[in-house]
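Ligand-bound model needed. pyridoxal-5'-phosphate.
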Amino acid sequence: MSRYQHEEEEHMVHAFQKFPLTIVRGKGSMVWDDAGREYLDFMTGYGVALVGHSNDAVVRAINEQAAKLITCHGTFYNDARSAFLEKLARVAPKGLGKALLTNSGTETMEAAIKLARRSTGRKKMVSMKGGFHGKTYGSLSATWSPKYRDPFAPLLDGFEFAEYGNPDSLSHLVSKETAAVIAEPIQGESGIIVPPADYFAKVREICDREGALLILDEIQSGLGRTGKMWASEHWGVVPDIMTVAKGLAGGVPIGAALTTTEIAGSLKGGEHTSTFAGNPLSCAAGSATLDFIVENNLPARAESLGNTMKAGLAEIARKHKLVKEVRGLGLMLALQSRVDIHSQLLSAQSKGVIFAYAGRDTFRFLPALVVQPDEIARALDVLDGVIGEEEAKRFR
Ligand SMILES: *Cc1c(COP(=O)(O)O)cnc(C)c1O
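Prediction:
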């Protein structure tokens, strides 16, 4: 164990499951460890390094803003914040021109839940089996996994779960007492689950019928990752509240709950604020990130490179009986194995490629949208190799 690993183990609460790797530097799709070894990063902090690690434009914006003003409480106006809000409104779905700024994904879900309760005056929420929305109490109450929930009960009252992808299951649960339905347009954490094509149109109808709001969590799927700016565009729906975070500021902590003027208006001054919300540093990084996404048309890039990568994954699936299924859209992809993939993840790391989990048996691929075709080819090659080795071990 290296000095850094020893010190983290010594002084940090063991909140994260760890890989034995110390990452000290990154550029684009690549990261380097403390011994100078390079790795192709297809995990990117679960999609945070969306515009690539230490993107030049983001680094420049952070440097310039840091020298000028790092903190400015939301009780004052600020130039970097107003510029970011204007750019965010420009890429937001039609009608969602108001943003409540936050510092993380889970905090953005808290904001969405409070906005929904405040504006409807209703208390009940329906979220989805398999859904993941974060680990603070409000968002945890909307998260499905008993592994995350059970040790911390009681959670918020009034949350129920519908079967994801099944409009009938949702229809039974939504009533005139439902404040909002909460869903991911594509489920990330539970294995990159893509719903039936007509599902979300029906979800929208059910919400409208009962006067419930629709909260779509685009924290992982948004900002071009799936081949469109917002994954909900694939389904032709606009939510009442949309949550964005992860890659929004090139790796700097930030989040935004986007909503309508009317819903935003239900919140009175002071009712939901946070000290760091809308700080100039993350806003400057956010502006540089949004400009980079738009100027380089990253959604289109994610679509075409995603097709290439998915075809490569399908080829691997055909070759290996250990592979159960390939799923996903754009550069939000998964390959489900028939076995636990832990040793395969470690083996891939030893060959210089970092993949993520989505459940014990599923590889999740969330490369930077600036990934190069030859980097995808290399990642596929390593994946093919580690699956082949695992197969050889099991079917010898
Ligand atoms: C990561 C994620 C969250 C939580 O974000 P944090 O910044 O980790 O709190 C919520 N919803 C989805 C869909 C996510 O992928």
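The pocket of pyridoxal-5'-phosphate is lined by residues 46, 104-106, 109, 132-134, 184, 188, 217, 219-220, 245-246 (CB under 6 Å).
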